[in-house]
Amino acid sequence: MTSHLLLDGVSKRFSNDHAPALDAVTLDVAAGSCTAILGPSGSGKSTILRVMAGLDPVTSGQVLVDGVDVAGLAPERRGMGMVFQRPLLFPHLSVLDNVAFADRVSGVPRAVARVNAELYLDMVQLGGYGRRSVRELSGGQEQRVAIARALAARPRVLLLDEPFSALDPELRSDMHALIDDIRSALSPTIVLVTHDRDEASAVADRIAVLHEGELLQHDTVDGVYTRPASLRVARLMGGLNEVPGIIVDGAHVSALGRVRLDAGRDVSDGPATLVVRQEAVGVRALGGDAFGADAFGRDAAAGDVVGKVTGIRHLGPRRLLTIRFGAAGAEGAAGTADVELNAELPPGQGVAVGSRVAVTLPPAAVSTVRA
């Protein structure tokens, strides 16, 4: 159940569309890994999964499984298992016979197919549900059966098309844990389509960001969040501060002053937007103790810049500060446009709207993107 999947220059164009649904996408999914495909509605997420499965033919390019191009094969010969947003179970069959369906179609004796089906039902925590009608199941249980049915076919690659989007948050969290259990037990190669960045982060090793059929970035979860390839990726991932400015001599210059950039980043001179995650911003109240993500042991060479707290928003137990710098701020660089940063604070720290705070941007947490 572990295979290497490679899309090589895959394009898909529907006859009634002016723009391609997929535009020369190259995506490499390592054997045994999980890649989440993330993007807004209409970005091509479901299309790329249907192309992998063979439900839609490619216009050009290759779909390679373990080095063999399967683009010309029928869906049932590709070794792909697919779970849809709606479970699509057979209502006239029991839970057990739904899961045993692939084995029965392949000619496996009924008794053997049922034993195998019980094993996969146990894996999705539905042991003992085999005799039930699928009409008796909750939405979360239906999706567990759909996953068990897909796994029972022993696919080379498991494709998940937003299978948890209709579930409530608690059930979705349970399903994420289930995927972790399945990965531990079987090490399958998984491609998950989702519009939820938190789900992508919870389940996947890597995230592929799609927009209008173009693959913008395919990287580790940390890489996509902290080193976005473009502003579009940064905005899709959320939780990032954007500061326009220019790079001069290895530092980003803006209303925040000079922010030294890590040597491993792109530090060539020219216009660039500095991006840094909210939780990476170090903050200390002037006249008080330091607090924030990088309060202790921060790099003094990065320097501090003073701003004014203009807003506080509560996010459950956390608080999100809005801090303003620049001509209208407390002590920002005179003659520059205002800049605002958001910074997360841990519970129990005392700061109010109007407070003056010093902010540190650790070089290792800062990235830049070009226009």
Automatic annotation (TrEMBL):
Lineage, top-rank taxon, reads Bacteria
So where does this one cross the membrane?
Answer: none
Q: What protein name applies here? A: ABC-type quaternary amine transporter
Q: ABC transporter domain: from which residue to which, for each copy?
A: 5-237
Q: Which InterPro entries does the record cross-reference, listed alphabetically?
A: AAA+_ATPase, ABC_SmlMolc_Importer, ABC_transporter-like_ATP-bd, ABC_transpr_FbpC, P-loop_NTPase
Q: Which Pfam families match?
A: ABC_tran (PF00005)
Gene3D superfamilies listed in its UniProt record: P-loop containing nucleotide triphosphate hydrolases
Q: What EC identifiers does the entry list?
A: 7.6.2.9
What GO molecular function annotations does the UniProt record carry, in alphabetical order? ABC-type ferric iron transporter activity; ABC-type quaternary ammonium compound transporting activity; ATP binding; ATP hydrolysis activity
Mention any one GO cellular component term assigned to this protein in its UniProt record. membrane
Q: Which keywords does this chain's UniProt record carry?
A: ATP-binding, Cell membrane, Ion transport, Iron, Iron transport, Membrane, Nucleotide-binding, Transport
